[in-house]
Specification:
The protein is built from 5 helices and 5 strands, in the order βααβαβαββα. The chain is α/β, with parallel strands linked by helices and 138 residues long. β3, α4 and β4 form a beta-alpha-beta unit.
Length: 138
């Protein structure tokens, strides 16, 4: 059984109630349960934190998984630490963003982690996570 890790960063624990016009009405645990039903052959593990050091520790603990999906939230635009962590990992990492970063403020168009990831998905809502799962399992 393949093991895919989903890691969400800052403020993503507020999905479903935060800026619903941008991020939608579905909280992530509801969506995760849907993903687990759609992909019963894949072990999906989920972690969310608003603290970059907790994200780094979790990612490194699971660096030998079959693939990782990372939505660091605003850490995307600020964290060289996350980029260095991804570079140190043997697992493939896909960067996912719910909103279209390129349709938002200029500072959101810069990702410190994109060059360390095997790919980036932006602007497809929560479906971006499913797109990443499909990539990592094929």
């Amino acid at each position: 059984m393949k093991k895919i890790i989903i890691v969400n960063g800052v403020n993503l624990g507020e999905l479903g109630s935060r800026e619903v016009d941008v991020y939608g009405h579905t909280d992530f645990h509801t969506y995760l349960n849907l993903l687990k039903q759609r992909y019963p052959e894949i072990e999906l593990l989920y972690f969310q934190s608003n603290k970059v050091d907790e994200l780094v520790d979790f990612m490194l603990q699971h660096k030998f998984c079959d693939g990782m999906i990372l939505n660091p939230g605003a850490f995307t635009h600020t964290s060289i630490i996350l980029a260095d962590t991804i570079a140190a990992m043997p697992a493939k990492v896909v960067e996912v963003h719910i909103s279209n970063l390129f349709g938002r403020e200029n500072f959101r168009k810069n990702s410190f982690i994109a060059s360390k990831c095997c790919g980036s998905i932006s602007g497809f809502g929560l479906f971006g996570y499913e797109m990443a799962i499909n990539y990592l399992t094929h």
